[in-house]
Amino acid sequence: MHALNNKMKATAIALDARGALPLRAKLALAALAMFVILALAAQRAQAEHPESFADLAEKVSPSVVGIVVDRQFRGVSLDGDPQQDPFAPGSPYREFFERFFGEDFPGFRDRDRGNGPRQHQQRGLGSGFIISEDGFVVTNNHVVEEADTITVVLDDGEELEAELIGSDRRTDLALLKVETEEQLPPVTFGDSEVVRVGDWVMAVGNPFGFGGTVTVGVVSARGRDLSGGTMVDFLQIDAPINRGNSGGPTFNLAGEVIGINTAIFSPNGGNIGIGFAIPANTAERIIEDLKDDGKVQRGWLGVHIQPVDEAIAEGFGLDEPRGALVAQVQPDSPAAAGGLKAGDVVLEWGGRPIERFKDLSRFVADTPAGTEVEVLLWRDSETATVTVETGMLDEERVAALSGDSKKHPDRALDELGLSLTKLDEERRQGLGLDEETEGVLVTRVEPGSPAAEAGLRRGDVIASISLEEVDSPEDFEEAL
Fold it and tell me: pLDDT digit string (tens) for 135-173?
């Protein structure tokens, strides 16, 4: 730029006595101005599209850790049944093993000495990142779920035993804590709301246990849904992520975490350039909640909702498909107390427009219990406003919705892309349904499946098929 200034001074001296520029000087000045504009554009382009990501990788990699998880489990006991236990006396298989391996075969010794089924160890690998100098680490819930021991491996190879502070299955997030005398290098969360499709991102993690690995790509989509009932609008990225990357961070060019890698879409288990990250704004709220007491508190409204398609919009007199249609209001719920009714279409929650029907679930979940919220509705072909006070979504309702009851396990119908379970008294109470409600509870809906295309979602209760009542998953299959 110093040389450019000298050239501009020299051109200025070329003014004639009347103070006007000769033609040659005008052309030279125009060319110089064009050169400056191009130089500045190139400099800006280089800043937006760096030739190398090495500086960014060097800056953030020390904050990314590997997660090693050990789980202990025992084999299944067959209670000495000769028809099932190959080592039980009288079993034809025992005679076979004795003939070839003798009576000292290890399986005989373990069984005959009453050792029972052997204990096995399963090791899992994942990624995480440091968010505080005193050792708080973020990762995915599915990485550390049911772990007996959790080890955090720092960038320099040091291994630290980690304590699970809390986890949240509905957003697949977990918070760990490690103790060390050294101050750890934390990263900061960025604003995922300003991330645009096409922005550069860098994913750092521990794929296949290889250690710190950097991949680069762009945000390829926003607002992706991975499963029925999820509380997350995922970012879709094409930076390659693989098994072991789960829980690792996705960075923007400023070195801020704008997502947490959590899943890939792949027909063969390998990377095909479609990965999903939990947005930083969602993760930051959940992590702060977990820091308090290891649990996440969510608002509760007490409605079953469904999408508003073109046919429903036309039938209700809406100008376009939008909002969330209230299909059912649970008795003694905040929605019932606030005056919501089946057939209402929720257009806004506290001034926030419901662009997609699942926005309502997320907005309600993010609202603290006891908050009064104005709800804009479409009712009887005109707008109406009601005020509701949000309740708290307790663990009993979460368990009921998740199908965690031991009495009636889920039944997967893979051809339809959904899982069902019997609506027993425990789930009925957890969901706030009255005693007369009968049917089967939908506990899982695969995205893109026939069930999803038909509008079914997790938490729906199917009462009948073609006017034939169903009371169990078996009834459902037979009626279908």
Answer: 999 999 989 988 889 999 999 999 999 999 999 888 889
Residue 8 sits at φ, ψ, to 5 deg, of -65, -35
DSSP 208: G
- Give me 26's structure tokens: 């005008």
- State how far the Cα of 312 lies from the Cα of 345, in Å rounded to an integer: 10
**Cα distance between residue 411 and residue 196, in whole Å:** 40
User: What are the beta bridge partners of residue 238?
Assistant: none
C-alpha 326/C-alpha 435 separation (Å) is 21
Helices (H), 14-53: 23-48
Cβ density class 438-448: b for 16+ within 10 Å, e for less: ebbbbbbbbee
Reported as type and span, the H/E element at residue 384 is: strand 382-389
Which residues face 49 on adjacent strands? none
Query: Facing residues of 353 across strands?
Result: 348
Element (H, E) at 220: strand 213-224
User: Please, are residues 461 and 436 in contact by the beta-carbon 8 Å criterion?
Assistant: no
The string of DSSP codes covering 105-129 is -HHHHHHHTT--SPEEEEEEEEEEE
Which tokens belong to 440? 């089967």
3-state DSSP assignment of residue 259: strand
Is the pLDDT at 193 greater than 50, yes or no? yes
Q: How far is CA 242 from CA 13, 314, 342, 425, in A?
A: 64, 44, 44, 42
Q: Are 305 and 346 in contact (CB under 8 A)?
A: yes
pTM (2 d.p.): 0.65
Q: How does pLDDT run across 259-305, given as a tens digit for each residue?
A: 999 887 766 666 778 889 999 999 999 999 999 888 888 888 988 88
| Mean pLDDT of the chain, nearest integer | 79
**Do residues 67 and 125 lie in contact, with contact meaning Cβ atoms separated by under 8 Å?**
yes
User: What region, left, alpha or beta, does residue 274 occupy, with left being phi > 0 and alpha being psi -120 to 50 degrees?
Assistant: beta
Q: What is the C-alpha to C-alpha distance for residues 160 and 173, in angstroms, rounded to an integer?
A: 20
Q: Taking a C-beta distance cutoff of 8 angstroms, is the pair 305, 360 a contact?
A: yes
Give me the active site residues, please. Answer: 142, 172, 246
